[in-house]
Specification:
7 strands; five-stranded mixed sheet; 158 residues; globular; alpha+beta; 26% helix
Length: 158
């Protein structure tokens, strides 16, 4: 019997949309009210609340299609340090079950600031200084924030 072919990689837009819907479904499964913003709220992909509470949380979703625990970001994340904003980084693992890294925005902002500064401070190829650019990256190689949904529960007053 022939082996099934690996699925074609999704476009960036489709993988991002898939990540948002996976996160919204997981939040709903955990008892949250989750509403995808359909690009209407700058920097927030999903608005989240607990039933019978008045507060909202904002979720920014970043998705990759592989299993590496790193996601490219833009320098705009550096000033995003609010207790009501979280990032959920999604690994789609090709066609497997997705995994989620739930990270407060303050952690993402500080990580990006400090790692970018460290990268700039170290010489690049042939000893030349790195050129500053807007590219940032968040990594959770140790899996510290893997399935850390409890951080949202704490922040939502659950």
């Amino acid at each position: 019997m022939p082996r099934p072919l690996a699925p074609e990689p999704l476009s960036t837009g489709l993988s991002g949309t898939a990540g948002e819907y996976f996160v919204a479904a997981e939040l709903s499964r955990r008892g949250f009210i989750a509403s995808i913003t359909l690009r209407n709220a700058r920097g927030i992909d999903i608005l989240v609340a607990r039933p019978n509470t008045s507060g909202f949380l904002g979720i920014q979703v970043k998705t990759n299609q592989h299993s590496r625990h790193s996601w490219p970001l833009h320098e705009k994340v550096e000033p995003t340090s609010r207790p009501d904003i979280f990032f959920v980084f999604v690994n789609l693992h090709g066609s497997g079950e997705p995994s989620y890294h739930v990270v407060p925005s303050s952690i993402v902002a500080e990580y990006c600031r400090s790692h970018h500064a460290a990268w700039l401070a170290v010489p690049g190829k042939n000893g030349r200084p790195h050129r500053d650019n807007p590219v940032r990256e968040f990594r959770d190689v140790e899996g510290q924030y893997l399935s850390a949904w409890h951080l949202l529960e704490s922040a939502s007053g659950a």
